[in-house]
Design a protein that fits this description.
One of its GO terms (cellular component) is cell envelope. It comes from Vibrio spartinae. This is Cyclohexadienyl dehydratase. The structure is a single chain. With 260 residues, the chain is of the alpha/beta class. The protein has 2 domains: 143 residues, Periplasmic binding protein-like II (D-Maltodextrin-Binding Protein, domain 2), CATH 3.40.190.10; 90 residues, D-Maltodextrin-Binding Protein, domain 2 (3-Layer(aba) Sandwich), CATH 3.40.190.10. The protein has 9 helices and 15 strands. A 5-stranded mixed beta sheet has the order 11-10-12-9-13, sandwiched between helices. It is elongated and about 55 Å long. The N terminus is likely disordered.
Length: 260
């Protein structure tokens, strides 16, 4: 606790933007576990957030350095000075769950439930999911566990540390359903995967992703937000979204996906 507090004081008292420019590198912590946003195939990174990271570095006049980091270690990595910014499918939160600065939001999404096409008929209503024999996969450390406990208190929750392991578990029959955001579901519905989005959890609620910075780094936060505004005005955001197939409106596969 003392070490963490000391790191926090050091980072917040340091002008991170000046250090980035002096170093000549923008260090980006990213999990590489999220298709279309931040995906690492063992050799290369790809995705919308990866392109944004490169663009941020270019606008700052520095190189980009991608630091592969487990999702649960993104916040601690900021305060241990492993990287300057965390990027890669991080939901924006107003709950104070992160002791960090959050950039402006981007890429609106909704929460969906995914299952195999063969299991689609088993879950024609949300009530059919709220049973002890139904196993619902969620990502540990995210808002999903809270959502599942709220909407499906009788179901069995199975937590995963890696996003990419959940679709495999659904496909293998180890869990019945997984909860995800629409961009994640969009990738699997567009590929040869047997997974489909069977329904939206809260169709009227919308959420956004954001990037994380150390607490107190106002100059860096202002600069990142300014660049994010700039890419919208110049149409660059749209170009990246089209490149990664994030521009298409998302729809669940079931005709009655909005019914309870």
């Amino acid at each position: 606790m003392i070490l963490i507090a000391g790191c926090l004081r050091f980072i917040t008292q340091t002008d991170q933007l000046a250090h980035i420019r002096k170093r000549g590198r923008l260090r980006v912590g990213t999990p590489g576990d999220y298709h279309l946003l931040s995906y690492f195939d063992g050799e290369n990174f790809s995705g919308y957030d990866i392109d944004i990271a490169a663009y941020l570095a270019e606008q700052l006049g520095v190189e980009v350095e991608l630091v592969l980091t487990e999702r649960q270690a993104l916040v601690s990595g900021l305060y241990s000075d492993r990287f300057d910014i965390a990027m890669g499918g991080i939901p924006r939160s107003v709950s104070g769950q992160y002791e960090v600065e959050q950039t402006q939001g981007y890429l609106t999404f909704r929460h969906v439930l995914m299952a195999t096409a063969d299991n689609q008929s088993r879950f024609s209503s949300l009530a059919q999911l709220n049973r002890p024999e139904v196993k619902i996969g969620v990502h540990v450390g995210q808002v999903y566990q809270t959502l599942v406990e709220q909407y499906f208190p009788a179901a069995t929750i199975v937590a995963f540390e890696n996003y990419l392991n959940m679709p495999l578990a659904v496909d293998a029959g180890q869990i019945d359903v997984m909860m995800a955001e629409t961009p994640f579901a969009q990738f699997y519905q567009a590929t040869e995967s047997s997974l489909i989005a069977i329904r939206e959890l809260t169709p009227t609620e919308q959420h956004q992703f954001s990037y994380l910075l150390p607490l107190g780094q106002q100059r860096l936060l202002n600069m990142v937000n300014l660049i994010l505004d700039d890419i919208k005005l110049k149409g660059i955001e749209r170009q990246f979204m089209v490149k990664h197939a994030l521009h298409q409106p998302f729809e669940c596969n079931t005709p009655d996906s909005h019914s309870a």
